[in-house]
Each structure stands twice: as structure tokens, then as C-alpha cells.
Amino acid sequence: MPSGPDGFVANPAYGREFTKARELLLAHPGRWRVVYHYDGDGIASASSLLRMLERLGYPPYATPLQGVEREKMRSLLEGTHGPVLVVDTGASWLDLYPPHHHPVIVLDHHQYEGAPNPPKLPDHVALVTPVDWGVDGMREMCAATLSWLFSVFLDPINWDNAPWGLSGAIADRQHVGGFSGLNATLVDEAVRRSLVQKRSGLALFGPTLGEAVVRSIDPYVKGLSGRPEAVAPFLQKLGLDPKHGTDSLDADGEKHLHQALLTRLVQQGVRPEFCETLRRERYLLPSLGVDAEELSNWQNALGRASAPGTGVALALGDPSAWEAGRAAEIAWRTTILGGMRRVEDGGVNSLDALQWFESAETTYAGTQAGLAMNYLVDPTRPLIVFSNGGTVWKISGRGTTWLVSQGLDLAVALRDAAKSVGGEGGGHKVASGATIPLDARDRFLAHADHTIARQLPRQGASA
Known about the structure:
Helix content is 44%, strand content 14%. The protein has 17 helices and 14 strands. Helix 2 runs antiparallel to helix 5 (162-171), helix 2 (40-56) packs across helix 11 and helix 12 (308-315) packs across helix 13 (319-346). The strands form three sheets. It has a six-stranded mixed beta sheet. It has helices spanning 12-26, 40-56, 70-79, 143-154, 162-171, 181-192, 209-214, 228-237, 251-267, 272-275, 292-304, 308-315, 319-346, 365-375, 401-405, 410-420, 441-455, and strands at residues 33-37, 61-65, 84-87, 104-107, 125-128, 197-202, 279-285, 290-291, 349-350, 355-358, 383-388, 392-398, 424-427, 431-437. Strand 13 (424-427) and strand 14 (431-437) form a beta hairpin. The protein folds into three domains: 12-169 and 178-195, inorganic pyrophosphatase (n-terminal core), CATH 3.90.1640.30; 197-285, no CATH class; 347-454, Diaminopimelate Epimerase, Chain A, domain 1 (Roll), CATH 3.10.310.40.
């Protein structure tokens, strides 16, 4: 396996895009503005990039974006009198960058209209996206692994951005079923360099067995997750003490717990690929002394708590950020469990080809949508979650890779439905978002339902 990134992808667009971005960056030393998405993948991406810029001696500053915010991006460009690096968002707004009088680099893994053929861009604008090299941005590369790879293209010293590459990929759930494609190549190289240690184990986090099962959201187990009164007798029936530490399980105890939880997941109708997440590959980060999934959860939690900057500060060595991350993770998990219990107890609304519900927690809606899609609702129809953003509805849509294999393209469905009511949307086939006017929800739903029905004729929805 090569130790440098040049030979990782054969498509010539791969090297061409990275080379243009690298040369643009090196030709303009000074203060760069990093604009990033506020979720776990975006925070991890910004973490790698700010570490990279600081090593160059460039004094960076970072600005998060929430959701699909074209006008916010336009405003930021107008107010920035210097170069801009946009990550985990922005590929759909390529028309905004040419008028900027300073360099713009865009690192994004989302689909854009016309992909993989971007419009001709001026010399001072560089777009780097796996979509253009035949690499699946939905499964094989996220913004964080893209940013990690870009930092390595700049200087091999940045291989040590591995923790942020992995944590972002896990935040985008690209680890489910094992890393694949370019992600797997990067992880294998990090393991070879002793930057990551792989191990297998149950996906349970907590100081005790009881707390770990109660706090489990991925997987979310009906009747147990968020219900301490049910977990204690469940574990005791297996001969396990809820107060014992999670590291106290011997091989037989782990086997029995795994089988009992797996049986419950199967009974609640969870698809096989999500049942498999109960026991999965784990990634220890020796430089930080934590599991990559724990780091991912802290970053995700800080983003959802409107403190993405603290998530970035984790990577820059701020000791207070670690304690803030732990505290935010407890609140994040508690809020998610509350939302999931509401869905478990109250159900969702159903149309011909899609399902939907409304979430009171705006910044948690995407996470709730993904987990509910995987563990609680009808797996044959995608799920849309609405949250009130004050003057607009913010929308998170989630499907599954199985639904994508049947024809689902949520990026198209949500983008077209949003556009039909004066909003905007986009993302991936399996996960997408949109923003629409408050009075347009019914019309948006009707349009999206019709589009998805045509995409998924096998599901029996009317076309």
C-alpha cells in the first residue's frame, strides 16, 4: 500500500483537484476563513483544516453554518476580505464563489446538480469532491476524511489528523458495516502508522452495564433504551449485574448479552445491516486515549448544543473543551432518547411513499431522523422530520442504503419539492435536507411524496 495519497485513486480528476487546491492555498499565505457545517462531520473537518493551517503559520478563523444556508454563505463571502475555505457544504452554490475577489477552496462530499461535471471555475476557485472521481460521497468518503486527505496532500505530517477523519466519518455513519472504498484505504494507512488501533466489541458506552444499555441510541432497543426500570430486570435475567462495569463482561457474558439484544432488534423489525451495528469494529485513538466513536459523539453533541467551536477546540488542544464535550454528550444523548421515546410511543404520520413527524429539537432533528429510520419506523419508506426554525421549516430526510438500491434519491426529491415551494434543499440519496416557508409544508409533502412514489414503485406507492 502506498504511504502517500497520490496513488489512492486512479481517476485523473483526483490529483488535478487536490493539486489546484493545494497550490492555491500555498500561494496565498495569511488569514483564511474556514466555513464548516455545524454537525459532527463538519466539526471534524474543520478540526483537521485548522490544525493544518496553524502548522503552516496561517492564522485561521472558523465560522459554522446550520443547515442549507445559501444566503448566509453569500453574506459571509461579502463580509470576508480574504481567502475562504468551505468544507462539508457549498458544492451546490458554485455560482457564489467566482465574484469573490480572493481565493475560495471548497471541500465537499455532497451531490451537486450536474455532477460529476462542475461548471468551469476561475483560477481562484478550487472544488475538491469525491463525486468527481467516481468515489461515493455517501459511503466511501465524508467531508472529514476528505479534509484529512487534503491535509496529507499538503504535508505527510498531517497523517496525525486521523482521529478527526475517523470521528467525522462515524458521525456521518460511514462506518456502519465497516469502512469501504477510500475511507478504508485511509483507515488502513492510519492503522499501519499506529495512529489507530482496531478492535471488535459491543457498541455500548457507559460506566456500568445498566447505564450502557439504558443510554444506547445506536442501536436503539425498544423497551430498553431510555428505560432504566426495564433494563435492570432484563440484565439480571441474563445473570448480569447492572452495576458492574462494561469492561467486566467475560466472553460468555458478552455472548449472552449480544444474543438477547439482537433478538429484540430482530423482533422490532430492524433491517439486518442495522442489527449488525450491535457488535462492530471499534477504533481506539492512542494519541487521545479515547474511542473514535466517543470522540464523534462529543463533537456531534457540541454541534447540536450550538457550540461547534468548542468541538473544534478539542482538536486544538483546549483542555476545557474535553470536559465541555463530555457534559454536552450527556445532554445530547438524553435529548435524543427523549425524542426517540416519543416516536416509539406516539408513532409517525404516513403518506403513500414517505413518513414524517415534527421535532421540537431543531438541532437534533437530523439525528432523530436517522435513528428513527433505522430502528423504529417502517423500513420500506423514507422518513422526513420537520423542525420549526422560526421563519422557516428546517427539514431532515433519511432513507437507507437498501432504499437507495430500490431507486430512492432523497437529494432529488427534497431539492425539487423545496424548489417547488420557494425553498432550497440537497444532500445525498440516502440523507438530505431542505428549508421551506412555514406555510408550505403540505405542498412540500405532496410534491416529495409524489416524487418518491415514482422513485420507489416496488413499495406499492401510487405514482
